Every structure is written in structure tokens, then in C-alpha cells.
Amino acid sequence: MSEKDKNKMTITGADAVLEALTNEGAEIIFGYPGGATLPLYDNLEKYGLRHILCRHEQGGAHMADGYARATGKAGICMATSGPGATNLVTGIATAFMDSTPVIAISGQVPREQIGNDAFQEVDITGITIPITKHNYLVNDPDTLSESVHEAFFLSTTGRKGPVLIDIPKDVLAANLKGPDKSQKAPVLEGYNPTIKGHSGQIKKAVALLKKAEKPVIISGGGVVGSGAEDALTEFARNTDIPVVATLTGKNGYPNTDRLYLGMIGYHGTAAGNNAIQKADVIVAVGTRFGDRTTGPLRNFAPNAVIIHIDIDPAEISKNVPSFLPIVGDASHIITSIADQLGTKNDSKRNEWRDYLLKLKTDREKPADDSRLNIPLILERLKKIVPDPIITTDVGRHQIFTAHHFPVDRKNSFITSAGLGTMGFGLPAAIGAKAGMPDDTVISINGDGSFLMCCQELVTAVEENLPVIAMVMKDQRLGMISQLQDAFYGERYNCCDLGNCVDFTKIAEGMGALGIRVETPEEIDDAIKTAINSGRPTVIEFILHEQGNTYPMVTGASLTEYIEE
């Protein structure tokens, strides 16, 4: 049969979707079946797509997110109509806030039932308008292939983000001619992301940097999203400009490099925050200047001229006024600036650099090894597993990890920064492990956040994905208690988790390995046992102290902070 004849064959809408997914290079779908998506599930095997069955749709969305961040490809999650689709919402919002390419496919009730309050009907396209880059309700079966192709294009270009495709069940079951397999980039009116920065603006940036005496670079999440890590590293080293990072930008620059000053913001390092507040020129790359990064806006970087590089023009001057905006791809713009600027080395800039490096080194100290605490655990983990993929949940342990676990390789630090989604860590680790099976993948969790999606441990066991979940048990909601400590007169209302949960038994009950650590001397053996087991493992660390994470901004600017 000729290719022409094959294309005339009648197929179903479900076939069109699955074939379009394979044409986009899809390999894995994280999903949970339901009545509205059964036509898709009935045909999965013949297209060679691996399906990983999550235990809750939110977990499936986080898995797709973790997969995308670890591999650089779009992650795919799938759910049925109604509650299945709404369960995706938190995961979609998480991906949206951190600009992660995720394709969410939801089933919908048949077309004739839409608007009639049918069983498991919900307007998921309406719900997700604010948290997707774009979404589709596909009413015409003949546009299914085109919709999938457009969704991937939108999700993975420009400022990346989630796209939802909502498909009525009768559209999936409809017969249609073979889909167009063309892989030409869609022509979408009004959507044309700028790649090359404006040459005039780039020249102005070069001129500003030539005159700068106290420059600093901010590595934002857009550095990672655009694959600009190497370009940024070369630029900073050639110009000897110190680098600070946002939480998602931590992975944009080698953390062990001497020019790296750490994270900035409410929990930023002393060196990082002082660099921002005392700089005369800031090169901000791929950051939206969120409130967790800037602290009180009225006093942010009072002496600095800001060069703001971002692929999304909507972010320019949205929160912080930009003296010199450059819209475009971070990698291209940084390279263009570097080519024109060359190297720069003078005595005043050297004094600035040395001042900041001294601030950094003066505060570096080994973790207390007399008591079981999070910095010590992370320090030991780094020595045993120097180059893993790390995911984190959200809470105090997340900030400790940002400060105490340096990462140098790309796509190896995965966290929910923008939305701050508790429960993200474990499913994100599962998604990362599915995409990068040869890597060691470790999730850092609090005892509060781990319970929000711990059922996904079953997914790891059933799919033979040996992730390691390290649960920091201090029997309270750590970040909440720290805020109550600082701002609410030490009134620790409603944050005590109690001691009734045995995380090792949860692990064993789900078919995983459970290990308890109660002393510093047990840390190394526990980590090595988990790695050597080749099984999904939960290591429960019984912390000896709650241990607030510092510095912490408590005043009117980033340099008004407490350190203990």
C-alpha cells in the first residue's frame, strides 16, 4: 500500500492524537484513565507510547513537569473529564509559573452534552485560561493533529509553558481521514517570539558594562529555559562579573564557581543581596523580578541601572523598571553582548568582586556534625552523590537545599518556585527518573509536603523507577513556624504535625524500601544503602533540631536581614 493510500485510510480521532504525539517525538505519557479518555487508552500500545499510571492526576502533572525540566522536552500528562481534569490544575499552574513546557490532554463529555451539566462535565478550558500559555477545546475531529502540533510548538518556543488540549469523547471516537504528517512550524497570527535582541539595545548594554564599576549578573529561570547556561558562564568568567541567582536560576550557573554568590531574595545570601543593593549595573537574564526575589520593591537595587534580558516582553518593567530592556532569546543576546564587550579587568571592579567574595567566604562554614540537621545531611549527600538530579518539595528544606547543595550540571535542580507547590518533589522526581533513567534522582522533602503526594511512591514501585525520597522529619510545618517565630510572637498555631506518622512503614506498605536515620553517624550508610538497593526508597531523617533557614529578610530592603 502506498503512503498516499495509507493517508486516505479512515482512522479515529484517538488515532490522530496518538499519531500526532509520536510525530512530535513523544515517548511517555503520565496519566490516569477515565471514561472520556478511553478511546485514547484503547489505542496506546499500537503507537509505542509508554504510559506511566499516576495515583492522582496532580501527581501526573508534576511528573510531566519533572520530566520536562530534566530532559528539556515537553512533558505530557493526561486525565479524564470533570474531576480528573480539575485535579491537573495545580500541576498546570505550577508549570505555568515556572515556564515549563507541559502538554495537558483532558477528556471532555460528548459535544452534544457540553453546557448541559452532564456527568463529569467541567469547563476546563475556562478554568485554565489564566494558567496556560494557550488551550484548545477541539470540536472538529479533522483539526486534532493540527491542534497537537500547534500545542507542542507553543509550549516549547518563546517563553515556554503549559498548553491544554480538551477533547470531547465523541471527537476521539469519530472517524476521519489520515492526519497530515507535515512537521512545518505552524503559522499562528500574533505569535512570533523575538529571538535576536535589538542590535541598538545590545550596543547600549555593552557601553553601560564598559563603564560599570560594580556590575552583577542575575541568573533567572529563563537562562535554563533557553539553554543559555554555557553562554552565561563564559560571559561571566571572561568579564569577571559576579553572578547571583533566583531560585529557578540556581541551575543557570555553576554553583561551585568562585564568581557565584548564591541566591538572592527573602532568603538570599548576604553576598548575593548586598551585590544587588550596592551594584551600579545589573544584567538581569530571564527573571520576572518576583517578590520573593526583590524583597520590598521600593528599595530594590537603589543605585543600579538595570539591563533586563527576557524573551517575554510582558515581563519587561512589570515589577522593576528596566533602564535598558532587551527582548529576545537569552543565549543569543548574552553571546552578542560578550562578543562586543570582550574582557574587562580594572582595579575598581576587582575591589568590588573581592568585597563580595569576602562576604561569601566569611559566612561559609561546615555544618554542625554533632546533631542531625538538614545542612549536614545535604553536605554528606553531596560527598556521596556529587552529581544527581535533585528535586525539592516546598518549605524550609527547599531553601536549605538551595543554599547547601551546589549544582554544576544543567537541568539538575528542579523545584516549584513561582507557585510554591507542596507535594511537587516526589512526583517531579519520578518524572525526571522516567526521562533520565541512568541518573540518580533524589527528592528532598519535608514531613508536611511529602504527605501531599506520597501515594506516587506506588507509581515509582510499579514502574521500577528507583527514586530516593529524603524526608526531613521535624514534626511541624517548618516554613510556617519560622514565619510565626519571626513575625507572630512565636505563636505556633496549627503547624504541629505530631509524631504519629512512620514514613518507613508508609514506604514498606507501598512496596518501597524504608530507612530511618536518627544520628549523624547513620547518614552515609543510609544514602549508600538506598542507592545500592536499586529500589524506590524513603529515608526518614529524625531531625534533632527544627533549624530555621537564614538569612531571612525582615526589613525594608534585601540588606535588612537576620542571620540567626
Q: What features would you highlight for this structure?
A:
24 helices, alpha/beta, 17% strand, six-stranded parallel sheet, Rossmann fold, 38% helix, 22 strands, 564 residues, single chain, 3 domains
In short:
The protein is α/β, with parallel strands linked by helices and 564 residues long.
Write structural notes for this entry:
With 564 residues, the chain is α/β, with parallel strands linked by helices. It folds into 3 domains: 3-177, Thiamin diphosphate (ThDP)-binding fold, Pyr/PP domains (Rossmann fold), CATH 3.40.50; 199-362, Rossmann fold (3-Layer(aba) Sandwich), CATH 3.40.50.1220; 374-554, Rossmann fold (3-Layer(aba) Sandwich). The protein contains 24 helices and 22 strands. The chain has a 6-stranded parallel beta sheet with strand order 3-2-4-5-7-6, with helices on both faces. Helix 14 (291-294) links the parallel strand 12 and strand 13. Helix 2 (13-23) runs parallel beside helix 8 (144-156). The mean pLDDT is 95.
